[in-house]
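Hey, sorry to bother you again with one of my protein questions. A protein chain has come my way and I'm curious about its shape. I'm sending you its amino acid sequence along with the backbone structure tokens. I owe you a coffee for this, so here goes:
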Amino acid sequence: MPELPEVNRAKNLINRVAAGKVIEKVETVEDTIVFAGTTHEEFANELTGRTLESAGRYGKVFYLNLSGSGKMPVLHFGMTGMLQVKGELASYYKETPKTASTDWPPRFMKFILHLLDSETGVTTQLAFLDARRLGRVRLCESPLTEPPISELGFDPILSMPSIGEFKPLVLKRSCPIKALLLDQSFSAGVGNWVAGILYHLERGSTGAHASAIDEILYNARLHPEQRSNTLTDEQLIALHHQTSNVCETAVSVDADDSKFPENWLFKHRWGKGKKAAHTLKLPTGEPATIKWITVGGRTSAFVAELQILGGPAKKLTRGKRKAKEEEQGDESDLGTLTDSDDEKPPIKSPRTAKVEKKRRKTVDVEAEPTTSNHKAKRTRARTAR
């Protein structure tokens, strides 16, 4: 899914090719899923004739600022949404496929903006594509104060809280720190982003998947499963710094993974699988055993030697605590055995003792001598009864 750096790049693309141009025509296709709370026809009517002044972004959501009164387009890429300028390849979020084409109109198109440059008379066409239909196109009076943006947490680039504001936001929650960072109501735009998306084929796209959160936690030296309410002041300061630092770095290079720092986990985390060694030396010379776990429903990579799981031990339930105490008591008894204790016969259960007693009685009866005197005694006993 396109995350903050990739959506920021899409915003930059719109500002580069469309800012200041008049929307003279809007082509749309009917899609009651992608067009949320509106129709493709209403969307086209709302935009036609207005000037696209600029594009903005908050978290993973981007929007268009248009001239005049009326509603503004608010867009979310979902899993496979993307933009394409006529004459160029689409901005793919994975490696550009061999079947990529500049054919127009593009496949999976939801709308195309015809943008007129009043000074040159040249028209540019910009399309929004979505193959899996998980993206959303909305119309809002005030994008920043209405859902979905109004429901989001802070943006690490646009509205990063101070360390004083950040600490209570983290400490009041009790969940794995990765799960907290994945929560868009806590922090907007940070996620298991796809690094190197928006690469064109001629730029040598790797299409590799990476996690911004994994990078943040690696640089902050925090284990993905560390409980948020167990972080120390030092850890909170590191988390605060790396949350903004990693996102700012990715945005500054336009999500170009070839320009990511060499000491990032991203540069060394590949090779997941049975044949992979998983053990590397990072450029710093530190030993690096890269392990994989699932946290918050997402696969997470971390360096075992550097990201140590800490925090208070889990509380035992009453039953487990009693069992543990009994176990410890047994171990204590074993530790005080003496030589005389070893010579004592083992204690038998009541059932075992009863069975053995019955066997001894049977043996005694069989061993009695069969003399006439004994037979007479048994006969008199039966007669008396």
Q: What stands out?
A: Residues 194-210, 273-279, 328-346, 365-372 have pLDDT under 50 and may be disordered. The two ends are 96 Å apart (CA to CA). The chain has ten helices and eleven strands.
